[in-house]
Amino acid sequence: MNFVSIRVITDDVARLVEFYERLTGVRAEWATPEFAELVSPSCTLAVAGSRTVALFGEGTARAAANHTVITEFRVADVDAEHRRLASLGCEFVQEPTTMPWGNRSLLLRDPDGNLVNLFTPVTADAVRRQERTAR
Predict the structure, then answer these.
(1) CB of 24 within 8 A of CB of 76?
(2) Per the confidence metrics, is the pTM higher than 0.85?
(3) 123 Rama class: left (phi>0) / alpha (psi -120 to 50) / beta
(4) Per residue in 88-127, pLDDT tens?
(5) Residues 29, 45: contact at Cβ < 8 Å?
(6) Quick check: 117 and 71 in contact, CB under 8 A?
(7) E-assigned strands of the chain?
(8) How far is CA 41 from CA 29, 38, 96, 116, in A?
């Protein structure tokens, strides 16, 4: 089994796609006006409109209601990303902080309130863990 994507449900697909395009620098591939994907070498972030939920079963997902998942992106320099994103008016939850497990982390919210973590491994142990998962 391979983990290949995460899908975010939203009431405003264009707004959320634009946010993630600006955040990641990846252009979305649009399948329909209600579904787009941002494809990276390691994973795909799909963004789908609330109307698509009915295809899986009415009420199976609800837009802007996530309180348990943090979408994470490894970046080369968290502090540089913080400066770049501050100029875009992002809502930061936590300024760049070195976490006990060795990642320098920046926590923010997307326009729907979903948590997004940008991180850079900074300790030797954290770098080794990332090298193992990159294989």
Answers:
(1) no
(2) yes
(3) beta
(4) 888 899 999 999 999 999 999 999 999 999 999 999 999 9
(5) no
(6) yes
(7) 5-10, 29-32, 35-39, 44-49, 70-74, 91-98, 103-109, 115-121
(8) 14, 10, 25, 19
pLDDT digits (tens, 9 = 90+) for 62-90: 888 888 899 999 999 999 999 999 988 88
**How does DSSP classify residue 54?**
G
Closest CA to 89 of 18, 4, 11: 18
Closest-CA residue to 34 (of 12, 59, 65, 66): 12
Question: DSSP 3-state assignment of 10?
Answer: strand
Instruction: Give the residue ranges of DSSP H helices in 7-123.
Output: 13-24, 78-86
CA-closest candidate to residue 34, choices 19, 50, 56: 50
In this structure, what token pair is assigned to residue 28? 């979305």
> Under a CB-based contact definition with an 8 Å cutoff, are residues 39 and 5 in contact?
no
